[in-house]
Amino acid sequence: METAEAVRQSFQRQAKACDDLGSPFTARLCRMAAERLNDETAVGRHLLLWQGDPTGTGDALALRFAGSLHAVVRSGQDSDLAAAYPPNNTSDENL
Length: 95
Description:
Layout: H1 3-20, H2 24-36, H3 42-48, H4 61-75, H5 79-84
């Protein structure tokens, strides 16, 4: 399987796990990342070319990605990103 496809599938599986565990925002974030990641950004390239095991039982790439975005929000470094996080409600187009 192509690396980018394996990464996308791991994000989709993590989204389902988050839904099942009652974490709808993280599920939404993982699902959107699986759909939107591309090689036009440094982050997209880095994730889509992941050399390790992107799965939840491997490198947990989707959770690392979600955690890094959460850290940016908590640090106050990006007010636009923070505005998309709960308890705020925003559309998928604004994420």
